[in-house]
Amino acid sequence: MAPTVAEAEAEGSLVLVVDDHPVNRLLLQQQLQSLGYAAETAVDGEDALAQWNSGRFGLVLTDCQMPRMDGYELTRRIREREAATGARRTPVIACTAMALEDEREKCLAAGMDDVVFKPVDLPRLLDTLDRWKHVPARPVAGAPQPATEPDMPGSRSAVDTQLLKATWGSDAKTIQSIVDAYLNSVREDYAGLYEAVGRRDLEAVRELAHRMLGASGMVGARGIAESCMLVTAASREASWDELQSAVQALEAEYARLDAEFGDAG
After folding, report:
1. Counting beta carbons within 10 angstroms of the beta carbon of residue 134, is it exposed (0 to 12), middle (13 to 18) or buried (19 or more)?
2. Residue 35 lies in domain
3. Residue 16: inside a domain
4. Which residues, at least 6 apart from 114, have a Cβ–Cβ distance to it below 8 Å?
5. Where is the signal peptide (predicted)?
6. For residue range 195-218, what is the model confidence (pLDDT) as tens digits?
7. Is 87 in the same domain as 182?
8. In the chain, how many domains are there?
9. Residue 92: phi, psi to the nearest 5?
């Protein structure tokens, strides 16, 4: 059982979850609770820095790409203030959808202590939290994670409900609420991305693709996530030919999501 916020604050284990996407914040906070950690949330780096200044948090779990202030700058600001005030070092762990070696190096160079990738593997997350918090190891709450069958061609669901069940259990209402929250968010982000492509706003395209990438990774929507990674890379390189191709791939995956769930379009 997770401690209360007050208990976690007293023992120095309260986690600050930083992510601009509401679905990611919800899932991460619930995952942490299942692992025996209490958490509060922040919507971006500026919000997180203001909350961190209170001295209440024992650990920060942050996304990297966010508006206003990203996770890299948040970490640099935290390290600067620690150095200036002599405060105890707060472990900062990146939680990012960009599972690339250069992303890990960039996180560590900014002053982060470790990196976990979305979709979050619960045993890996627990090991990382316990290692940096120096608390006794404890088993993952809930039933053992079932082994999943490899995807057969054409059989893969648009959202990996097996991944959700492995994380949250088999309660249908819980799974449906998570899927519904994801569908609502991805519908809004997809519409915004499509408009941004039309007005050739590369920065908006990159930001929206990253938002969709993070949320899709968290719920195991691998097709959407993979397409969003291509869109992100093409927008970063300002390659409109590659971007158009990546957007077409995203359109196909979104259509599959819409066809399967009916609520996405």
Report:
1. exposed
2. 5-133
3. yes
4. 91, 93, 94, 128, 131, 132
5. none
6. 999 999 999 999 899 889 888 888
7. no
8. 2
9. -120, 125
